[in-house]
Each structure stands twice: as structure tokens, then as C-alpha cells.
């Protein structure tokens, strides 16, 4: 969703002030945008601290929240950043962010700190302890296991450095401590909640699921127009388009889809694999392109690169089938990506691997097909069957949309989020 940005104006304080913390740039961030919108509508004031780019205002109103940004490299010299990085390596508490958080809490008169993702939770908890504030840890994924997967796509030298500086076992220890100290923990799936209860000793009363479901007004098949083939980055109208939209990485299973595609093309000659997105490692993306060329059907596989966030619904709507081909590991078994619900909301049938929440949700919705992870032959069989049967695709797409409306709607997760804050703040 593209946020409407307005200049900052003084506003009457309407309720407890939530101070969100995001170790990244904002906007865009789909999950954060949804949470901000819901909490503001419920009467909470929301401020947000994040990183800033060269052209970003230091302070502005975005989608109802007061956003404060700082430019780490501009504000802190090389030596200062180096010293504090070494300190972070030793403690996993970020002293630069700690300083910014203190200013943020005092300037915005924050009542609750809401921290997105694990890396800054401990830092925020240290500041919160000084000011007597509760902390909500919004854990978008099993971060230690996610790091393990991200490193697989890095050059060997970089992977080695990161493994020495922040080994996964230290991140797991950080996760256990953060979950134990947090007043509330948010996660995206029941499987992730079970992980925090089982592996981190979390109190069941403090862990809630607010999933990556979608705003049905944004992902509405009656409103979203498919990206036109004339732009050159989507497929022709008469093609059977199998699409993947999102980040690339070894754990995403895109290699499985590419290896499956020769058999799909044999069965459905007009099939096209549309890969929208990329990774943070150019070498990894190039490896995927080389793999596509090696299959012999490289001309039936399109790489668009990154696209504007506003165009994502249009690319998804251009697909006859949406892919979520995750491999199975401790990260993917406990997470669910936005793309699953986005495809479903747009009435696009899904082929997903039998990994954690993916298989559970697709089966429950009756909105696609579930195949074993890392099995190109099984994926090819499922895709070929859908390519040959437009009526089946329509039925599955309708079931997917109906399930999102009835059981996997953001409105339900929004109620959970607001109820959590009402309980925490006594509002």
C-alpha cells in the first residue's frame, strides 16, 4: 500500500502514544503500515523511529503516524560507528540506536515501545527499563533461523565474517532473552507462537498471532488491473502465467520452480514463469538467471527485477497461478509470507510447498495445490494440471478469495492487535 504523506501538524493527543521502532526505512513496509492505520483508527497516537535516506525528511506525518528518521552515516562518524559496531558485537545492544531511542522516547512522550523484529528488541528493552515503559516485540519471523538462510546466499567471505561476529547460537540466546523480557510478543503464525512457547519459554498469555493477512480493499480483484503485457515486463494475454512475487533467496525455493518449468512447458507450451523481485546479493540473482538458461526454456522465464510496491497487486493479478515454493527449514516452517494472502485475495490459485503454515492454509482454504518441498517433478505435475484446466483455476481462485474474506482477513488480526493494546495500556 502506498502511504499518503502529509506535513507534520500539531495534533491533540487522543490516547496512549505508541512508539514504533523499525531498523529500516519507512515507508514502505506493508505490516507496519497496516498496524499504524489500525492503531490510529482505534484512538492511539503512533510515532515511529526509523532510518532515513538522503531525500527523506527528518520528521513528518505519514499515514497518521509521526515519523522520525536519522541518517546513521551522516550523523555518526566512521570511527564512532566502528567503535559502536564492536560494542554491538560484544553485547548485541546497539549504542547508536540506544541514543536515538532515548531522544525519541523523550521528544514524543512515548508510553509503549513497539519494536519490529529481533535485532533492536534488547536495545529497546534497556531504554524501556530506564523509563518504566512496556515493550511489545513484533517478531516478523524466526530471526536466528532467517539469518542462517540469508547467509547461504552471501559470498563465502561475507558469510564467514558474519558467522564469526554473530553466530546463530548467539542470536538464539538473544531471542530467548528478548521474548522473556517483552511484555507482549506478536508473531505471524500459530507455528511461530508454538516456537516461542516451546523453545523460548514464553508465557502463553503474552504471545499473540497477528498474521500477514491483507487489506481486502487494496487486494480486490474487481479493482486491481493486471499489469499490461505491452509494458514488456509481464506476459501476453494468451499465456499461462505462473508467477512468483517477492524477495529471492535460497530458502524461497525459486530454484525448484525453475527446475520444474521444462516439464511444465512440455505439457503446456504457452506457459511462462514470471519472477518479480530480487535479492540483496546480485551474484545470487545472476545464478538464478544462469540456471534458467541451463533448463533450455529460458525464453519462457521472465525476470523483472524489483518493481514499485504500488505495482505488486497488478503483477499478481497478471498471474494464472501464484507460487510460494519455500524449502523446508526451521525458518520457513514457522513463517507465512504476505504473498500467500495477497494471491488468495486476488482470486489467484496458489501452488505452495508443504511447509509449516503454507500447506495448512492452502488446504484449509481449498485455494490451490500443495506439493512436497524441493520436488520439481511434483511441482511440474501440479502446475501442468492447472495449466490445462481454466475452470479448475477459477474454482480454486474463488475458494481462495472466499477463505480470505471469511477466515484470513486483516480485520480479524486488527482486532487482536487493538485488544492487545487496550489490555496493555488499560485504554
UniProtKB/TrEMBL annotation:
Pfam families: Glyco_transf_4, Glycos_transf_1. Residues 36-217 form the Glycosyltransferase subfamily 4-like N-terminal domain. This is Glycosyltransferase involved in cell wall bisynthesis. It comes from the Archaea. Keywords: Transferase. InterPro entries: Glyco_trans_1, Glyco_trans_4-like_N. One of its GO terms (molecular function) is glycosyltransferase activity. The lineage of its organism: Archaea, Methanobacteriati, Methanobacteriota, Stenosarchaea group, Halobacteria. Gene3D superfamilies: Glycogen Phosphorylase B. Residues 235-402 form the Glycosyl transferase family domain. Residues 1-20 are annotated as: Disordered.
Amino acid at each position: 500500500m502506498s502511504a499518503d504523506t502529509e506535513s507534520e501538524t500539531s495534533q491533540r493527543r487522543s490516547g496512549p502514544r505508541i512508539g514504533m521502532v523499525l531498523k529500516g526505512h519507512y515507508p514502505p513496509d506493508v505490516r507496519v503500515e497496516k498496524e499504524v492505520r489500525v492503531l490510529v483508527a482505534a484512538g492511539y497516537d503512533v510515532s515511529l523511529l526509523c532510518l532515513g535516506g538522503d531525500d527523506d525528511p527528518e520528521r513528518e506525518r505519514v499515514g497518521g503516524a509521526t515519523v522520525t528518521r536519522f541518517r546513521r552515516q551522516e550523523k555518526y562518524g566512521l570511527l564512532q560507528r566502528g567503535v559502536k559496531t564492536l560494542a554491538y558485537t560484544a553485547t548485541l545492544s546497539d549504542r547508536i540506536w540506544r541514543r536515538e531511542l532515548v531522544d525519541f522516547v523523550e521528544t514524543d512522550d512515548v508510553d509503549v515501545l513497539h519494536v519490529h523484529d529481533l535485532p533492536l528488541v534488547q536495545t529497546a528493552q534497556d531504554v524501556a527499563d530506564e523509563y518504566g515503559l512496556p515493550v511489545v516485540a513484533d517478531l516478523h519471523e524466526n530471526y536466528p533461523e532467517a539469518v542462517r538462510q540469508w547467509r547461504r546466499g552471501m559470498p563465502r567471505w561475507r558469510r564467514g565474517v558474519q558467522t564469526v561476529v554473530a553466530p546463530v547460537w548467539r542470536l538464539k540466546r538473544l531471542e530467548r532473552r528478548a521474548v522473556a523480557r517483552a511484555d507482549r510478543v506478536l508473531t505471524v503464525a500459530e507455528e511461530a507462537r508454538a516456537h516461542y512457547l516451546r523453545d523460548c519459554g514464553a508465557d502463553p498469555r503474552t504471545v499473540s498471532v497477528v498474521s500477514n493477512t491483507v487489506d481486502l480493499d487494496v487486494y480486490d480483484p474487481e479493482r486491481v488491473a493486471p499489469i499490461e503485457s505491452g509494458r514488456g515486463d509481464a506476459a501476453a494475454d494468451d499465456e499461462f502465467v505462473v508467477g512468483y512475487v517477492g524477495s529471492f533467496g535460497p530458502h524461497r525455493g525459486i530454484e525448484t520452480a525453475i527446475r520444474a518449468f521444462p516439464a511444465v512447458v512440455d505439457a503446456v507450451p504457452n506457459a511462462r514463469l514470471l519472477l518479480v523481485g530480487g535479492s540483496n546479493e546480485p551474484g545470487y540473482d545472476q545464478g538464478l538467471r544462469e540456471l534458467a538458461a541451463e533448463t533450455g526454456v529460458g525464453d519462457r522465464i521472465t525476470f523483472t527485477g524489483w518493481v514499485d510496491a504500488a505495482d505488486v497487486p497488478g503483477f499478481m493479478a497478471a498471474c494464472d497461478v501464484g507460487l510460494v515454493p519455500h524449502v523446508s527449514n526451521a525458518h520457513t516452517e514457522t513463517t507465512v509470507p504476505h504473498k500467500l494472502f495477497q494471491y488468495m485475495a486476488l482470486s489467484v490459485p496458489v501452488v505452495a510447498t508443504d511447509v509449516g503454515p503454507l500447506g495448512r492454509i492452502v488446504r484449509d482454504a481449498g485455494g490451490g495445490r500443495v506439493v512436497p518441498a524441493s520436488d520439481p517433478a511434483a511441482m511440474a505435475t501440479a502446475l501442468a494440471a492447472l495449466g490445462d484446466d481454466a475452470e479448475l483455476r477459477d474454482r480454486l481462485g474463488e475458494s481462495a478469495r472466499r477463505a480470505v474474506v471469511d477466515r484470513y482477513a486483516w480485520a480479524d488480526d486488527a482486532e487482536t492487535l487493538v485488544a492487545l493494546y487496550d489490555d496493555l495500556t488499560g485504554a
